[in-house]
Structures are given as C-alpha cells and as structure tokens.
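so i finally got all the pieces together for this one. its two components total, 604 residues if u count the protein bits. some of the lines might not be protein, just check the labels. i wanna see the whole assembly predicted at once instead of chain by chain like last time, that was a mess tbh
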Amino acid sequence: MPDAGVFTAGAIQRRKAAVDRLVQVVLALVVAAIVAPLVAIVTYLAIKAWPILSWRFLVTNPTNYMTGGGIWAPLVGTFYLVLISLAIAAPVGVLAGVYLNEYAGDNWLTRAVNLAVVNLAGVPSIVHALFGVGAFVLFAGMGRSVLAASSTLAVMTLPVIITSTREALAAVPRSFREACWNMGASRWQTIRTIVLPNSMSGILTGIILQVSRAAGETAPILFTGAVFYVAVPDTGVRSFLPYGLWDRCMALSYHLFILSTQVTGVSESLQYGTAVVLFGLVLTVNLLSIALRVYLRSRRKW
Amino acid sequence: MRQRVARGVSRWSEPIIEWTIRLCGWSAIFFVFSILFFVFREAAPALTSGLSLKEFFTSQNWRPDSTIRPQFGIVALLAGTTSVTLLAMAIAVPGGLGAAIFVSEYCAPKTREALKIVIEFLAAIPSVVWGFVGAMVLNPLIIEATGAPIGINILNGGIILALMSVPIIMSVGEDAFRAVPDTYREAAVALGASRWQIVYKVLLPAAKNGLLAAVLLGVGRAVGETMAVLMATGHAVQVPHSLLDPVRTLTATIAAELGETVEGGLHYRVLFVIGSLLMLMTLAVNLAADVIVKGIRGRQDA
C-alpha cells in the first residue's frame, strides 16, 4: 500500500487531535463547574424556602422581633429605594449616554468622561456608602433617610444606565442621522425624533438592569438610610405608603443581612424565604431585560 | 411666519437642552471627584488628630475600642483582603478565562448565547445573597469536608468571591479573544494547527493585554466586595496561617464597625481612611486595566 499513508493520520496528527479533544472536555468541565453551583444554589434555596413561600409571606409584616411574620415592610422599602434612585439616575444616565454617543468629540474630555464612568462602576460599594454618609447624610443634611440612601444608590448605579444607553445609541446606524440632517433638522431634533425612538428599548434594558442592581445592593444603604425595624401598618393605604422621604426605611437586602447575622432564633425557612424573594426579584427583573434584548434583536430592521 | 416662530422657540430651548445633556455627560467626572472629596474630607482630620501612619501600615493590632490606647494597625486586615482575593483569583482566573476560551472558540452560537445568559444571572445575584449562601450553605459543607471548627473562613469567602468574579473575568476575557482578527485564526488553520494550538500559540499571545485587564477587573471586584466577605469570611482580625482561618477584610471592617462609631471620632475617621485607601486601590486597578485595553485598541487602529 504505497499511498494509503497520505490519508491516514500519523502519530503526530493523532496526538494533536487527542490533545484537542482533551482540552475541549476540560474546558467544558470548567464551564460546568461554573454553571453547576448556580443551578445547585437556586434549587437548594428554593427547596429550603418552599414551606414558607406564599402570598401571605409577602404581604405580612415581620412580627415577634423579626422571628415571625413576613417581609412586607422591607419589600415596600426596597420598592421605595429602587423607584427613587431610578428617578434620579435614569434622566442623568440617559442624557449622559446621549452626550457620550452624540455630542462628545474624540478628545481628552471624552476620554476623561469614559474613564470616570468605568471608575464609577469600579468603586467598591462600601466606599459608595462612605460617600453617601459624607455627602448626602452629613453635608447635604439629609440625615439617614430614604432620600440619602436612594441618592447613594443612584450614583452607584449611574454607570449601568450610561453604558447601556451609549451602546443602544451607537447601534442606530449613522445613515439614519444623516438622512435626518439632510432634511435640515438640528442635532437635538435628530436625537429626539430619530435616535431616541430607535434606541428606546435598548435604553430600557439598561434601566431595568439598574433596577436589579439597586434592589440587591446592601452596603450603600447600610449607613445612609436602612434601618433594623420600622412598624408599618398591616392594612389600608398607609401600608403602601409607610415611609416619607426623610424617614429611614427597611429594605429587603438589609433585612436578609440582619436575619442571617444579627437576630437569633430566626427560623431557617424565614431566612431562606427572604433570600429567595430577593433573589427571585432580581432574577425576574434581569430575565425581563434579557427577554427584551432577545426580542429586539429578532425584530431589528437594520 | 409660522416657521419663524418655531425657529424662535428652538433657538431658546435647544441650547438649554444641549447644555443639560453636556452637564449630565460631565456628571460622571463630577461624581468621581466628589466621592474622592467627601471620603477624604471625613478621613483627613484623623491624620492630624492622633493616627500614626506608621502604626497604620505596619501594626497588626486593630484595637479601635481599647479604652487605654486604641490601636489602628491594618496589617491583619490587609492580610485578610489579600488572602481571600488571592484564593478567589486562583479559582476564578483559570475558571473565567477557561470559560471565555470555551465560549469564544469551542462552542456553537446557540450554546454561547445560552451560556452568556447563565453567566449574566451569575453576575446578577446580589452580594448579600452570596454572603447568605456562604454563611448558611457552604459553612456546614466546609465543616463536614475539612473538620474545621468554623466553616466561615478564607476558603468559604474565596469560593464565594471566585463565583462572583467569574462573570466579569469571563466577559472581558471573551471580548479580548473576539478582538483578535479572524485572519490570525485562518492563517493558523492554513498551517494545520488544531483548535487548541490556535488558542495556545496564537490567541493567548495576541489577546494577552485584554486578558490581563480581565484579571485586573476581577481583582478589583474581589477587593471591593463587601457584604459577601462580611458574611462568609468571619470576624477574626488576624494574619491567617491556613486556608481554614477566619479573617476580616478592609471592606468588611468598615461595614461591621462604622455603625457603632461616634460620628467625628477617631475610630470613625480611621474607617474613612481605610475607605480612601480602598478607593485609591480600585482607582489604580481600573486605570491600569483601562490603559492596557486602550493600548490594544490604539495598536489595532494603527
């Protein structure tokens, strides 16, 4: 068989292919080792929390020095913090994204802004907490309050909205803008009528991500407005509006922290239940943003 | 006539809107500097009122509450942060980069999308939930597996932090691999290289800066993380001797102690000094990562 060797793999090729397969298996195992804990944690938390999870758990206030009842008061507090921080961060963040993509030239100032956004995202959450204490609680005289905590969360989550807005705007083709300019529209008219409508859903994705970040954060609210316990009415309109802007509030993330480290005699199911609600809230919000993104990509016209 | 009216309106409103956009764009810079300013402002009086920097950086004694002579040495806290971060990186760097290689070079597009969503979920889990998992789930597992008296220690915190840093290492790493032009891969395939040979001989050297940035950002994430290490690494302020020793990190110390300090007291100010240190450390890490990444972009443009 003089020529068969040309088509059969030699020792070197066989070894090369074997190494390649081995590497692929090893890398797949690495990925599995990252995905498996996530699945395991979610399942384990859900199983442990199952006995307590019910509508009643969500809408009942904590009772008996936090060892009984549900999570209504902290849940409402988290909604307060998220909504107010969103109201502060969304306009500033979206406009900053517009600036970076539509106005900023290719110069040192733009580079400085981009660098600042990256660094703002990289500042440790506990340093944001210190900033909140120094700037909002003390300097601005807000005291420990919903407003101070929300402002701290807003500064912290600003980069999320800025970067996703910038990306959403960058995805709008330049030809759209050029067409609009050629009709005699000014820069702002182009942005308002062409760029923003075409990138609205991408901007929305970033805003949703901000919500998920703000809902889960604990450290920034530790010293700026979160409090151990607030007596919240069980029924009536007041149960939906228990906190004023200048009051301290309970928050789900902080509640989980104190349930698992500060209070004794808390039943396991209460702790796991709180963890699962917080976790579930954040994941649901994230899922929403992912679904929105996939939907968008499928119907993008350009 | 109508046109003139419309123009008159936009002549006034457009500059206002455009300047609002510019101000919002520059706000990121403003916030970074105000974080520096307000944290330093609260920290600075400590340097003139009794904190010896020599003791601060060289003493292992962290005794802030001592009535005889309070001591503020952060060596043990630095050792805590360093040990947990090192362990976390020892797990997360191979894991995250391995997953990045797998996702960018080995798997089908469908699998890639699915994996990226899973990783996004991993990144979305709030740090207090991670801390809860460390304290409630991993703690008994570690006691059972190693026979250590407490399962809340370096090992626990390292594993939790590793899982928290994998998403950022993986996504930045994947970007680095995707930034390598396909012509490199094609040239290697034409020479008969296997997939692993392409990764090992071509992609790793070509993407090395981006990968370094990925690792740096992972380190920044791990150093700055607060709630998870507060709950999962224990409260013993000590220089650790084994992986099973509990330690306390810089971030956890601020979170655990700021609530108990007297506002304006030396202890309070020293915690802000630690905050300033953390801020400077993460700024340095982020700037380094940015310079490295920008370095690559610059070269590719040229």
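Chain B has two domains: 2-48, 71-301.
The first helix of chain B runs from residue 2 to 48.
anyway lmk what u think
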